[in-house]
Specification:
Length: about 130
């Protein structure tokens, strides 16, 4: 079963869903993982409080990019409150394979970007 999930991750990495940008997006946010250099940007168009269109761009490892691709499929049509309720475990479950502690930040970068956008954060404070 784990092989099927690994294949799904590789498929999302090689053929990302909802990849690109939205011109004049209602919400856009971008962030990176400074430890490895992975970067994800998410653009959304909102209609009636729901995600009418979502796209992402980025660069990085298979886990970060596949996770962002899967995430866009998960939330299309969702409202911002539903996005705010998503947990790290929701994303890790969607990936379907154990993620090493060193790769968890990669797997969750898309969620960090999405939730930041949903909460209207325009700049993530540096620590």
């Amino acid at each position: 079963m784990a092989d099927l999930y690994r294949e799904n991750i590789l498929d999302h990495y090689r053929n990302p869903r909802n990849y690109g940008t939205i011109e004049n997006a209602d919400i856009s946010y971008e962030d990176s993982n400074p430890l490895c250099g992975d970067r994800v940007r998410i653009d959304m168009r909102i209609e009636d409080g729901k995600i009418a269109e979502i796209k992402f761009t980025g660069r990085g490892c298979a886990i970060s990019q596949a996770s962002a691709s899967m995430l866009t499929e998960m939330v299309e049509g969702a409202d911002l409150d539903e996005i705010r309720e998503l947990s790290a475990q929701d994303i890790l479950d969607e990936l379907g394979v154990p993620i090493s502690p060193a790769r968890v930040k990669c797997a969750l970068l898309g969620l960090k970007v999405l939730k930041s956008a949903a909460y209207g954060i325009t700049d993530w404070p540096e620590h």
